[in-house]
Design goal:
alpha/beta, Rossmann fold, seven-stranded parallel beta sheet, three-stranded mixed beta sheet, 12 strands, 41% helix, 17% strand, NAD(P)-bd_dom_sf, Epimerase_deHydtase, NAD-dependent epimerase
Length: 293
């Protein structure tokens, strides 16, 4: 069973279905891919009783859902409690999709064994979700992705740069343009979720989704080259710009917490994922070809 209907949820469902697994997808809208082995159900995942009813008989529950970005501190505990209740009562294994916010600022490569030392509200919300699941006694693992890119991705890059680059417009980006940054492809993240669910030694700890590390300017240039678009025009948003944008949507105000300090690369180490789970990073240009197709 998969809770969520976004790009990673849909790709995970298709990978499982193509292997002959029966999949039930749960979301408020009942969305998801059209496949004979994928059953799409409209339900509220914060309703623990309903979620437990839907989870009965499932071998594994994958959670790829998250509350609206600006509500994480208030809403993640409610969603997390419902999911934990369902897997406990149904006796299912639990595979979580997380991110790297829980580590907080890190000097050097981010490895999955680092402590979850974030102090900001969104980072602590993410850390608590894992800490509570790990201490619950359920069979659980977490796959932590970096900033998403790829077909259907929803991230700073896709919001602030992708369409602008493809249309030859100026892209205003809330991160340094030439500092290395790790990106997780949607397809690689889904493959890691599936691989972790099938590997007994994956449970009881977290894993990193594979990443490709390049600056946002380099990623934009690669996208433009693949699409035959003009050379990207890019500028970095200032703190003042983000403050003004926050009047248009709360998402922008929330970025202040997770922006890394100036000049610091964000590099995610996924060596254990490749070695033990057998999942590596798809070449960047292949991922971008999916975006434009």
């Amino acid at each position: 069973m998969i809770v969520g209907r976004g790009a990673t949820a849909s790709r995970t469902a298709l990978l499982l279905a193509e292997d002959g697994e029966r999949v039930r997808m749960i979301s408020r809208t009942g969305g998801g891919p059209d496949h004979p082995l994928v059953d799409r159900v409209a339900a509220d995942a914060t309703d623990a009783d309903r979620l437990t009813e839907l989870t009965e008989g499932a071998d594994t529950l994958f959670n790829t859902a998250a509350p609206p970005y600006h509500t994480w501190p208030e809403q993640f505990p409610i969603l997390s409690a419902s999911l934990l209740s369902a897997v406990r009562r149904a006796g299912a294994a639990y595979v979580m999709l997380g991110n790297i916010y829980g580590y907080g600022p890190v000097d050097g490569p981010i490895t999955p064994g680092l402590p979850l030392a974030a102090t900001g509200p969104k980072g602590r919300a993410r850390a608590r979700v894992w800490e509570e699941a790990a201490a619950s006694g359920v069979k659980v693992t977490e796959v932590r992705a970096s900033q998403f890119y790829g077909a259907g991705a929803y991230s700073v890059f896709t919001l602030a740069a992708q369409r602008q680059v493809l249309e030859g417009r100026l892209a205003l980006v809330p991160q340094e343009l030439d500092v290395p940054h790790s990106y997780s492809a949607i397809g690689d993240t889904a493959r890691t979720l599936v691989a972790a669910s099938r590997e007994e030694q994956a449970y009881g700890r977290a894993w990193h989704a594979p990443t490709s590390t390049l600056s946002v300017r380099e990623l934009a240039q690669r996208l433009a080259a693949v699409a035959g678009a003009p050379e990207p025009r890019m500028e970095q948003l200032t703190d003042r710009d983000l403050t003004l944008l926050a009047f248009t949507a709360p998402f922008w105000a929330e970025l202040h917490e997770v922006l890394i300090k100036p000049g610091q690369p964000l590099v995610v180490d996924y060596a254990e994922t490749e070695k033990i789970l057998g999942v590596g990073a798809t070449p960047v240009d292949d991922v971008l070809h999916e975006v434009i197709s």
